[in-house]
Amino acid sequence: MPINVPRALPARPILEKENIFIMESDRATTQDIRPLNLLLLNLMPEKERTETQLLRLLSNSPLQVNVDFIHTATYESKNVTKSHLEKFYQTFDAIKTRYYDGMIITGAPVEHLDFEDVEYWKEMVEIMNWSKDHVTSTLHICWGAQAALYHHYGIDKQPRDKKISGIFMHQRIEATNKLMRGINDEFLAPHSRKTDAIYQYIKHHPDLLMLDDSKEAGPLLIASKDERHVMITGHIEYDADTLNEEFIRDLNKGIKVDAPTNYFPNNNPNEDPKNRWRSLAYLLFSNWLNYYVYQETPFKWD
User: Fold this and answer.
1) Is 245 a catalytic residue?
2) Identified catalytic residue from 48, 51, 111, 237
3) Which of 58, 168, 272, 286 is the most buried (most CB within 10 A)?
4) What is the CB neighbour count within 10 angstroms for residue 156?
5) 235 is catalytic
């Protein structure tokens, strides 16, 4: 998929080195096709890294995609420069009259808080309500998935006895669901969180489908039956070394944590971890863009 991104975006040279198809804005405007317009609500602290990870996964399709970035107006991130936000990001007020074919809501390091205690929760609720009639399909990641389950379907989260971190095996349940096309019967996926959605409520909710399950991690993929919402409880967008960096960060903070499960070769933190979920991530994003967004979105929004 050719991704149309600003020339100065820090993710651009990284993606170009990986031979990701990056399209110039002037070329994009001359192509006689209807591009997909996506909105990315980036709640992660390291915004530049998250931009690169997600843009990489949006590249694996023949469709042309335009991406707009927004951040919360009610909370100012401390891990990104103000100039980066001013140059590449907008706030919700600037885009709320527009319509988007798809939206991605990222995770956020606020899962220890009740939803209503999150500083920008009211803004999140406004955005999620707006998405009901302004976005064809929304992809929610980790805390973003828990927020969507809570707000749209009344399913709360609960704390784990200890943080789950590592790579876990999942078994496919809904083999005929469009999101699962081409995905193996068993697959590995990374998780990193301290809370879980209450899975028995998901399993029995009339509007939701659990697409897979894992004894250790619970389901990775949950979809609404109307295809408007996809919830990913893990972090399939992560790079190979991201869990390791989180592990080292926690140790440096004096937090007692176990090494990520099934992550380091030979369970040795001195060996470089391998990305064993890359094909899953590319295929899932491609399926979402094709079947839940491109095939369903109107050619022209009213």
Assistant:
1) no
2) 237
3) 58
4) 13
5) yes
Residue 110 lies in a domain: yes
256 found inside a domain: no
**17-32 residue pLDDT tens:** 765 555 555 444 444 4
214 is in an annotated binding site: no
Q: Which two tokens stand for residue 130?
A: 């707006």
Contact 102, 58 (CB under 8 A): no
Q: How many domains are there within the chain?
A: 1
Amino acid in the structure at residue 21: F
Cα separation values, 72 from 15, 67, 122, 239, Å: 26, 17, 10, 25
163 known ligand binder? yes
The answer to whether 249 is annotated as binding is yes
Considering the candidates 84, 123, 142, 170, report the single residue annotated as catalytic.
142
pTM summary value: 0.88
Does residue 261 lie within any of the structural domains? no
Q: Which two tokens stand for residue 258?
A: 């176990």
Q: What's 112's domain CATH number?
A: 3.40.50.880
Structure tokens at 14: 């990284």
pLDDT digits (tens, 9 = 90+) for 256-277: 889 999 999 999 999 999 999 9
